[in-house]
């Protein structure tokens, strides 16, 4: 066996499907009337170089112009002479091959001689290139459709971060390449890793594959374009690494609904989603094939070898020495009765390929030989380019009842069944491969039918980064659009969109989850506030005390002690002290235009009156004693009336200044959002206050400070008066303490 072990299903079943299709075409009076189609059967051995040699066996006739009909042009395995050789010059089209690498090699030759080719199993996306493989067509969809279906499945499951796994070779590499390309164009899916399995893997190679996949553990979805052996060994390595249930497999049609890749590895394969070109079992072929025997099927030169292997017996006429350990074939054995039989999956597509050529020839016959039976001179020599046009134009219902047609690249439409391998569950079904959807240009996936390990109805995640929470923005990882870090919009920032945080306006603060802004609460000093209680209490007590003193002075107004103390200036001083206590109530009152105006006026008026009275009295004492040292004549302006005029003149400066200020800047209330803008936005408050800055507050009291300093200077000068004059020293003591208090107040006020 130059080609190795006979392939009973992929070889003999498909070959018999072609013969079966030819029988049906030739028996159909409506299809190619008067014309019989024959076939020349050649073994490619699934090797591209050997297939090239076989193709040249009938292409030689085209090179020479006409073949000699010599049977030597036909090569058969083992040197067995052919039963019958078809005239090589009558080959108008080729059905095949199976492997994409073989089809590529053969297509490169056939295009030189304009011979159309239709494959029933080659799915490599490379063959869709109509500039290189212009005479190639296929009745199966290319892997690019399969890759599109897999991208749609990944997106439907909400995955955006997956790895790919491919067997080295045209099928695996081109399949993954198509998946990567489509996912990049569609967007929303990123490839964590693309791993290639060598043709001849070394020991431990698959353990390394699993280890590499675990370098990106969030990419649980694994897109796998691999042969059966590689799939099996990957599953074994996953089990060995104790990662059963971690990976979420999405398998191509090489996995499909096959049992062999997952035999005894079912626990690792649970949840795997696989796809398979939509296919059907052809009942007519089953009836045909199960009635084949050595007597009625001599046209298949490999059938005798199939018979021996299928029934585990030996034929004397097989050309090999009889083996005593194997029984002899009787010829009475029957397929399906004395051996197991299950129709091979590509039988449908072989039949459709034959019918596609037949329908194309029929349309060509109607155009070139209208109304004629059999071949007319116009079709004696078939024009391959014209036949290709008719092939690309065919549209008919195939053997499974689905439409057969080709696009401009010669590809069949993509139609796939989607399966999921599920664990056996008494309440949910028997387990195994369960149909969960279809793909035909668009995906129809029954998500509710999917079952997963863990929570059976919750789709596991395969994402690089989990969605960010409310109030968090995505900080993208450079070069990986599906990966990001979540960064909180902290402080006074809020989330504008999924990528941006911005600061709230000055009068607003963020919501608790930082997804928006809300007005900052406005507060003011209220009558019931704990902060207002002590000042108000002191103000009330001070006002009462001042009122009591005034009342006492009024009651004893004409007594010598009251008159000696300078009752006029004492009343002015007491009025100033009362105003100082009364301003407390204005400071607690709700700010408004009137309240703010009153604050400006009375804040400095009380101290000005007090210091003006004290300054006038101190100055009077100083002048009297200084004048007494030089003469007995009393100094001027020491009468009570003069003292009041001097006091009110000094006070009028403050009043005029405040009035000018009120005219230049009319008073109003403002809300200060900076004063209580705390680190925690929840504690932030706006403060309703008058439009008096700290500087204007000090300016308002500035004149009083000037009077106080001047009064202190005179108090120092008057410190040497006789002991019997008891007013000078208390006034001096008062001014010293007042200066100390003011010196402490100014830096403390501005510093805090």
From TrEMBL:
Q: Which keywords describe this protein according to UniProt?
A: Cell membrane, Disulfide bond, G-protein coupled receptor, Glycoprotein, Membrane, Receptor, Signal, Transducer, Transmembrane, Transmembrane helix
Q: Which domain of life is it from?
A: Eukaryota
Residues forming the G-protein coupled receptors family 3 profile domain are 531-752
Transmembrane portions of the chain: 536-557, 569-589, 601-622, 695-716, 728-750
Main localization, broad class: membrane
The protein's topology relative to the membrane is: Multi-pass membrane protein
This protein's record includes keyword Repeat: no
Q: Does the keyword Transcription apply?
A: no
Entry's InterPro entries?
Answer: ANF_lig-bd_rcpt, GPCR_3, GPCR_3_9-Cys_dom, GPCR_3_9-Cys_sf, GPCR_3__mGluR6, GPCR_3_C, GPCR_3_CS, GPCR_3_mtglu_rcpt
Compartments reported by the entry? Cell membrane
Query: One GO molecular-function annotation for this sequence?
Result: G protein-coupled receptor activity
| Family indicated by similarity | Belongs to the G-protein coupled receptor 3 family.
Q: What is this protein called?
A: GRM6 protein
The species this protein belongs to is Crocuta crocuta (Spotted hyena)
Tell me the gene name: Grm6
